[in-house]
Design a protein that fits this description.
Chain A: It is an enzyme of class 3 (hydrolase). Chain A: Its cofactor is Mg(2+); Mn(2+). Chain A: This is CRISPR-associated endonuclease Cas1. Chain A: Keywords: Antiviral defense, DNA-binding, Endonuclease, Hydrolase, Magnesium, Manganese, Metal-binding, Nuclease. The complex is a heterodimer of chains A (about 350) and B (about 240). Chain A is an alpha/beta fold and about 350 residues long. Chain A has two domains: about 5-80, CRISPR-associated endonuclease Cas1, N-terminal domain (Ribosomal Protein L15, Chain: K, domain 2); about 90-330, CRISPR-associated endonuclease Cas1, C-terminal domain (Four Helix Bundle (Hemerythrin (Met), subunit A), Up-down Bundle). Chain A is about 50% helix and about 15% strand. Chain A is built from nine helices and twelve strands. In chain A, helix 3 runs parallel beside helix 5 (about 160-175), helix 6 crosses helix 7 (about 240-265) and helix 6 (about 200-220) packs across helix 8. Chain B is of the alpha/beta class and about 240 residues long. In chain B, about 35% of the residues lie in helices and about 20% in strands. The chains are: A alpha/beta (about 350), B alpha/beta (about 240). The interface of A and B includes residues 149, 309 and 342 of A. Bound molecules: iron/sulfur cluster. Iron/sulfur cluster (SF4) binds near residues 26, 30, 199, 204 and 207 of chain B.
Chain lengths: ~350, ~240
């Protein structure tokens, strides 16, 4: 497997990024410029307003370092990349698949893994904290998820798959509150809500999903797939549908677990959030930094990849899955092996 | 008689591909069809070394040898374009002074007196290889020079950086036939857009595309994906 390089997150809105030779320079009003060589970086993500010089953009494009701009609230705005990588034949094949019958085969596999990994989150919680949680409830939902696993393999069409996915997600999130062991007064989930998040847990999940989405998106671009043409998620201008597809199997393992462990280890507190008049819940800037730091740390932890049978850092999962997906579309593999956390 | 020109500008392949193809067919398809390229230390060092031989605006003369760097090449009969690291032009004695020189052996160069024989030299990192891929690339360069200048060449050389020495290469009929055959296959695959399957071998550990190619996984597991989900499910149910 290839190496996991760093992602540089710029969270100070007044920052400006420039280039000096092979280095990126980060200038901010309140401190000395930061300098680092481009070759140690995999991607750069700026949150809130941050400027970048054209020559830095060029350097990033040449070196295959993705440079993304997010809004303050984590919403994706734009990214810079150079010539489209990969090959037009692969993308054409992707489009043909997306339009044809076989799209369902891929969609099934993303959702199978999504349900399986969500279920493992529930099962692990029972295993690790059985005495402190309402195991009955969690067990019950885990059993439902098992049934959906079976079911998703047998249904034919995309709409059925979407239906099962929706039901499974409701089941899973309905047990989610049982997995929260600290300050349950402040940390609870009232169903999934996103625009805007209406409770702290949703706010944390949304932000973490954004971090994941960026990585999946640039992984797809790296292997030459078009992140916008999905199999399960329908096309919509501006929506990275294939990235959303591929994220499904990684959400529970990479994002949900992180949010749960930060809450349960009391690394996050009720007053790290701002609650607006209309109930919208926002992360305070320090919490965002904290979340990013935790995310980066988690990316460096290692696991044995169930299909590749190799030890890899967790941060490479988006890339390894994107690569396996590209290889399947290209015809090297018969069927796509999604990431199944055991 | 001039060779038949089979190819046109927009179906030429890259000359550098022939060494990839001769080394590993899949490597060639990953680089040239899938447009995947992974820099590793080896390729980086290769570029560093090329750097010196790579200035197209610089020619020098050493005694009877004129050295031209980064010479653009094209060969319509075999269908490729590219660049020669170094082509030396060796001054040859005219027939008047004794040796027999036909117009097929040497050429006139613009702005220079006398006749000159092109002599391609390809710079390589490392040491001589177990396979013939360096020779094949050199021979292809020579064949392009022959077409472009209308000459017949008999010899070129490979320069190996690690050993610091030249190995001369005779452009045999066998080597030429191999170049033809390789390019013919490459044209076919390129047209069909086929990426060849991975075959894991001892070459793989020196291959800069190892991480992208995943030869071990793909040659071992390509048939095992079908049962992958069911297998998981069976284990979970059991
Ligand atoms: S890793 Fe092996 S099979 Fe793959 S391209 Fe390289 S040499 Fe060929």
């Amino acid at each position: 497997m290839r190496k996991l390089l760093n992602t540089l997150y710029i969270t100070s809105p007044s920052s400006y990024l420039t280039r000096e030779g092979e280095n990126i320079i980060v200038k901010a009003e309140d401190r000395d410029p930061l300098r680092m060589p481009i070759h140690i970086l995999e991607s750069i993500v700026t949150v809130g307003y941050a400027g970048a010089s054209p020559s830095l953009m060029q350097l990033c494009a040449e070196r295959g370092v993705s440079l993304s701009f997010l809004q303050e609230n984590g919403q994706f705005m734009a990214s810079v990349h150079g010539k489209t990588t990969g090959n037009v034949l692969l993308r054409r094949k992707q489009y043909r698949l997306a339009d044809g019958e076989r799209a369902a085969i891929y969609a099934k596999r993303f959702i199978f893994a999504k349900i399986a990994n969500s279920r493992t989150v529930l099962n692990r919680a029972i295993r690790d904290h059985g005495s402190n949680i309402a195991s009955d409830k969690v067990n019950k939902e885990a059993d439902f998820l098992k049934r959906y696993l079976n079911k998703v393999l047998t249904v034919p069409g995309l709409d059925d798959i979407r239906g099962i996915e929706g039901e499974a997600a409701r089941r899973y999130f309905s047990a989610f509150n049982e997995l929260i062991l600290a300050d349950k007064e402040s940390f609870y989930l009232r169903g999934r809500n996103r625009r805007p998040p209406l409770d702290r847990v949703n706010a944390l999940l949304s932000y973490t999903y954004t971090l994941l989405r960026l990585e999946v998106q640039s992984a797809l671009e790296t292997v030459g797939l078009d992140p916008a043409a999905g199999f399960l998620h329908r096309d919509r201008p501006g929506r990275p549908s294939l990235a959303l597809d591929l994220m499904e199997e990684l959400r529970a393992y990479m994002a949900d677990r992180l949010v749960l462990s930060l809450i349960n280890r009391k690394q996050i507190h009720a007053n790290d959030f701002t609650i607006k008049e209309n109930g919208a819940v926002l992360l305070k800037p320090d919490l965002k930094k904290e979340l990013i730091t935790a995310w980066q740390k988690r990316k460096r932890e290692e696991i044995r990849h169930p299909f590749l049978d190799e030890i890899i850092p967790i941060g490479l999962l988006p890339y390894s899955q994107a690569l396996l997906l590209a290889r399947t579309i290209r015809g090297d593999l018969e069927e796509y092996p999604p990431f199944l956390w055991k | 008689m001039a060779k038949k020109l089979l190819y046109q500008e927009d179906n030429l392949l890259m000359l550098s591909g022939v060494q990839h193809y001769a080394f590993c067919k899949r490597q060639w398809s990953l680089i040239h069809i899938e447009q995947q390229w992974s820099e590793n230390v080896l390729t980086y060092e290769g570029q560093q070394m090329h750097g010196r031989a790579d200035d197209p605006y610089f020619s020098e003369t050493r005694g009877d040898v004129l050295i031209s760097r980064a010479l653009p090449l094209v060969c319509y009969s075999i269908g490729f374009y590219g660049k020669a690291d170094v082509v030396e032009f060796h001054a040859v004695v005219s027939s008047r002074s004794g040796s027999i020189i036909g117009e097929r052996d040497a050429i006139a160069l613009p702005g220079r007196e006398g006749l000159w024989r092109p002599f391609p030299v390809e710079y390589k990192r490392g040491k001589p290889k177990s396979g013939d891929w360096d020779e094949v690339q050199l021979c292809a360069q020579a064949m392009a020079l022959e077409e472009m200048f209308g000459v017949q060449l008999t010899e070129g050389a490979l320069y190996y950086g690690e050993r610091g020495r030249r190995v001369s290469v005779t452009l045999t009929e066998g080597l030429r036939r191999r170049v033809y055959a390789l390019f013919e296959e490459m044209h076919g695959l390129f047209l069909a857009g086929v990426t060849l399957p991975a075959v894991y071998s001892s070459k793989c550990k020196n291959c800069s595309l190892l991480d992208i190619c995943m030869p071990a996984i793909l040659s071992r597991k390509s048939k095992q994906t079908r049962g992958y989900l069911q297998h998981y499910l069976d284990k979970e149910m059991g």
